[in-house]
Every structure is written in C-alpha cells, then in structure tokens.
Design goal:
The protein is α+β, with helices and mostly antiparallel strands. Helices cover 61% and strands 8% of the residues. A four-stranded mixed β-sheet has the order 2-1-3-4, sandwiched between helices.
Length: 276
C-alpha cells in the first residue's frame, strides 16, 4: 500500500471536520427520519442569538459531535423565519434560545436541552437521546401495527406527560385506558392517575374525579393508594367541594399515616380549616 493511499484511507475513516449536516426543512427531515428509523435533532435558533452562533462555531463542527449526529436526522429551525418555522417553534413551546430538541420520527419529544452545551458534553447528550429514542420508536412502530396496543399507548402517554406534552399525553392515555384491561393493575392505576392530574389542571373536575375513583377501585390495592387519594382530595379543593376534600384528606391521615402523603394531607386540612 502506498503512503498516499494509506493517508487517504485513514482520513476517510475519520469524522468529517465539516460538522453536522443540517436539513433546512422540518417536514422533509421528519420524512427522512421515518424512512430511516432515525430520531430527529432540531436546532432552534435566531439571527440575534449569540449562543446559537457559538454552537455553530464550536459544538456542531466538532468531529466527535458530527460523528454522533450521524445517528440522527438533523434540522435547523429559525424561530423568526418563515410562518411554518414559527409554527413549529410554537408547537414545541420553544420560549428561549438556544433550544435543542430531540424527536421521534413521528415528531414526538424525546428530550430537550435549553441553552448552550460545548463539544465536551454534547456527545454524551446525543448518546442519551439515542438510547431514549429506541424504546419510544419501538412503541410508535407497535402502534403502527396495532393502534390498540395498550403497552405502547401507556408508554408513550407516560413519557409525554413527563415531557409536559399534556394534550397528546391525554389523548394516548385515554386510548390506553380503553384497552388496558389485561395490563398490570399498577400500570392501569398510573394511567388514570396521570389523566386525573391533567383533567384537574384543565379544571375538568368531574372527569378527574371519575378517573381517580376508577383507579382507587382497582384491586389489589397498591402503594400509590394515598397518592391517588391526595390527588382526588386536591381535585375537590380546586372544585370548591371542601367537605369531600376534608373527608378524603382525613382518610389519608387515618389509614396511611406513614405515607409521605399524610403530612401533605394534614397541611391541606389546616388550610381548609382556615377557610371555614
């Protein structure tokens, strides 16, 4: 092998020094992600954002970062660009820059990074996002095969709740609740608990009460019983039904005195007494 050929082969095996290869159209990036099965890396930026430009000059041109980003479809979205780009930023609740968002091929949030991160740490961020994406993509593919797959519906719904994507979380968890009769009782209770929290937040108190009572009725009773009762009691507080709230909080204090919820229940009872 000649020296020049050896050098050429060595260089061809190294990460590109040109940095991450960016798509410029979000919808096209999602299509490529669905075709390839890769997650999506979205860089939200604006012309005035100095830290965004610093990402371009440092992190994104780092050879290790560029190599790691090959496991994603990468796309840039200008938050002050076209109406479509601004709509995408609004959809994902981008309120500060820089924001780096990782999505599944179907556009569901995996995780996000708010602020600048240098080339030393960013490869680990890419690796964590890739690891997280595997199970989420499996659930999405399971739903493509069977839209009533309770495990996939629950998994995605819980993940989106944790990502504060509440509207889609609610839709998935409601679908899960309709099809989860064969699932473990703890999973069924968690689904109804999260739905109750969402509906309480949206001031849909009657629906929250129904969901939480349904969860409390599932047998055998689980360790989450005092938490379910506490969320039910807080729903009654928000609803203005203080008598039911007192009874529910008192039940926690009497039946689950060793639970962390017991102290919260006592504090709520004190606050309710002040309202008499």
């Amino acid at each position: 092998m000649t020296a020049s050929l050896a050098v050429a082969l060595l260089l061809s095996s190294q990460p590109s020094s040109a940095g991450i290869r960016w798509e410029r159209h979000f919808d096209l990036a999602l299509k490529k992600a669905r075709a390839s099965g890769k997650p999506v890396l979205v860089d939200f930026w604006a012309e005035w954002c100095g830290w965004c430009h610093r990402l371009d000059r440092t992190t994104y041109v780092d050879p290790v970062v560029a190599k790691g980003a090959e496991d994603f479809v990468a796309v840039k979205v200008n938050t002050e660009g076209s109406p479509r780009e601004m709509a995408i930023a609004a959809r994902y609740d981008v309120s500060s820059l820089p924001t780096i968002l990782f999505l599944t091929p179907r556009g569901r949030p995996i995780t996000r990074l708010n602020g600048f991160q240098g080339p030393g740490e960013f490869p680990r961020t890419l690796e964590r996002a890739k690891d997280q994406s595997r199970r989420l993509i499996e659930w999405e593919e399971a739903l493509e095969r069977n839209s009533k797959d309770a495990v996939a519906l629950t998994g995605l719904g819980v993940h989106l709740f944790e990502q504060e994507s509440y509207p889609e979380s609610r839709e998935l968890l409601y679908r899960a609740a309709r099809h989860d009769a064969g699932q473990p009782v703890d999973d069924r209770r968690r689904t109804r608990l999260l739905l109750g929290i969402i509906q309480n937040y949206d001031r849909k108190f009657a629906e929250a009460e129904s969901l939480l009572k349904d969860a409390l009725s599932l047998q055998p009773e689980g360790e989450d019983q005092p938490k379910l009762l506490f969320v039910l009691g807080r729903t009654y507080v928000s609803w203005g039904r203080h008598a039911e709230a007192r009874r529910t909080m008192q039940q926690i204090v009497e039946e689950y005195a060793q639970s962390p919820m017991a102290q919260k229940a006592r504090e709520t009872l004190v606050a309710l007494e002040r309202k008499r």
